[in-house]
Write a structure and sequence with these properties.
alpha+beta; two-stranded antiparallel sheet
């Protein structure tokens, strides 16, 4: 997904009080950002990344948990948080995403998917 600043990244977001667990957060954020709510998480894959950034003059740390999921839906309804989206294969996704940490997650997911006959 392309963010207003121009960089490309995977859908992600923040935990909210009503989220029962990380999967609930991931599903809610995906639905908010893409309009896709019918997903099935693939068991056995979870990755996390850490990074920091400046927000209102303060250094903020963030940890992101990543999951794999499948869906039959291909039509995306972009949120106002994003400028564009693309469905990509693993190799093109590696080329497209901006952040090194996200590239690492995509590589992990690709290895997991290939080793479990999911690609």
């Amino acid at each position: 997904m392309q963010y207003p600043q121009g960089h490309w990244d995977l859908p992600k977001g923040h935990i909210e009080a009503n989220d029962s667990d990380n999967h609930a957060t991931a599903a809610r954020e995906l639905a908010e950002e893409t309009g896709i709510s019918e997903i099935e998480f693939i068991e056995g894959f979870e990755s996390s990344t850490n990074y920091s950034f400046k927000y209102k003059g303060k250094r903020t740390k963030k940890q992101v948990y990543w999951y794999l999921a499948t869906t039959e839906k291909i039509t995306v309804k972009l949120s106002k948080e994003h400028r564009d989206y693309m469905w990509l294969n693993w190799e093109l996704a590696l080329d497209m995403v901006t952040h090194t940490e996200t590239k690492g997650v995509i590589k992990e997911a690709m290895i997991f998917a290939n080793s479990h006959g999911l690609s």
